[in-house]
């Protein structure tokens, strides 16, 4: 829920200060050197993404139970670096009038979807101290640990809103859903059976509401590079009170994706025998504006 609050504040700020041109192609540029790229592009293309994953956890803490014979537990979870890759398509509805507006600005700049694979890793260690009835005399200590790497195939769809700083750079933020299914499972129990809290593993199917934020970079006409972060906002498949975390061992792990996305629009191929006068006047106007924006 804290992530969701940050997302709302960020988006309200963007609309408050006003957005520049939300067209991802920018305005017409003058070319002093070289030949201007006059190729036509479709308003959709391929998107490729990949990067690192990390499981964020809470800090460790000592817990004392059983007042008659005190036992101290220190459960210490940590995230490990993993990886992910994905491929899909991006769609820019820029040639059509926006159907959804906020303060006169386009709400959805583009949307994209993808399929891929991601790997999450984590560890957990447990220190246990056993005391005599007086609660001060230590008579035994035990230690346990475990580690895991879980692999998921995933599908996702995300709607994005762009706030342009210049013709080349823009803030890319999006809201969407990811659907993950665990196909590789790591170790599910520690070497020490922790009686303080039952050990459990998350269900294989994961459905989350997520938020994307990144820095969009227009490399050239029809080519965009977007480094950024994906954060889970809410878990929906295994309901745990809006928490997007994944249970493993005796701890909760929140997945974070550090990603780089590359979008390349598809080139529009026209037949050499096609008549250049085909199309209505409105079609020609939109095509002219589209070409100028590239």
String of helices and strands: HEEEEEEEEEEEEH
Strand portion, in percent?
over 45%
Give the biggest beta sheet.
Answer: 8 strands, antiparallel, barrel
User: Using only CA atoms, what is the Rg?
Assistant: 26 Å
Mean pLDDT over all positions: 79
Strand order across the biggest sheet? 1-3-6-7-8-9-10-12
Uncertain parts? 5-34
Helix count from the secondary structure assignment: 2
C-alpha end-to-end distance: 39 Å
Walk me through the structure:
With 294 residues, the protein is mainly beta. The protein is built from two helices and twelve strands. The chain has helices at residues 2-16, 281-293, and strands at residues 41-56, 61-65, 71-91, 101-102, 105-106, 110-131, 138-164, 169-184, 205-220, 223-235, 246-248, 251-267. The strands form two sheets. The chain has an eight-stranded antiparallel β-barrel with strand order 1-3-6-7-8-9-10-12. A two-stranded antiparallel sheet has the order 4-5. The longest helix is centred in the N-terminal third of the chain and has 15 residues, at 2-16. The chain starts with a helix and ends with a helix.
Descriptors for this entry?
294 residues, mainly beta, two-stranded antiparallel sheet, 2 helices, 12 strands, elongated
């Amino acid at each position: 829920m804290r992530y969701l609050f940050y997302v709302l504040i960020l988006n309200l700020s963007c609309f408050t200060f006003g957005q520049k041109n939300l067209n991802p192609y920018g305005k017409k540029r003058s070319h002093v050197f070289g030949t201007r790229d006059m190729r036509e592009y479709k308003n959709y293309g391929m998107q490729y993404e990949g990067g690192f994953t990390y499981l964020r956890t809470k800090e460790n803490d000592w817990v004392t139970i059983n007042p008659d014979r005190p036992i101290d537990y220190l459960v210490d979870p940590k995230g490990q670096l993993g990886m992910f890759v994905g491929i899909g398509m991006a769609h820019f509805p820029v040639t059509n009038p926006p159907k959804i507006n906020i303060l006169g600005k386009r709400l959805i700049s583009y949307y994209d979807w993808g399929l891929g694979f991601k790997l999450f890793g984590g560890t957990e260690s447990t220190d246990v101290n056993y005391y005599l009835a007086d609660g001060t005399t230590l008579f035994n200590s035990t230690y346990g640990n475990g580690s895991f790497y879980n692999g998921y195939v995933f599908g996702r769809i995300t709607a994005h809103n762009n706030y342009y700083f210049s013709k080349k750079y823009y803030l890319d933020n999006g809201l969407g859903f990811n659907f993950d299914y665990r196909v590789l499972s790591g170790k599910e129990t520690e070497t020490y059976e922790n009686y303080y809290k039952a050990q459990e593993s998350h269900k294989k199917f994961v459905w989350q509401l997520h938020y994307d934020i990144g820095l969009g970079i227009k490399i050239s006409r029809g080519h965009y590079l977007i480094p950024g972060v994906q954060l889970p906002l809410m878990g929906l498949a295994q309901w745990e009170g809006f928490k997007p975390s994944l249970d493993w061992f005796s701890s909760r792990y929140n997945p974070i994706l550090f990603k780089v996305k590359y979008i390349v629009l598809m080139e529009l191929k026209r037949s050499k025998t096609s008549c250049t006068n085909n199309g209505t006047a409105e079609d020609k106007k939109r095509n002219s504006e589209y070409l100028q924006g590239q």
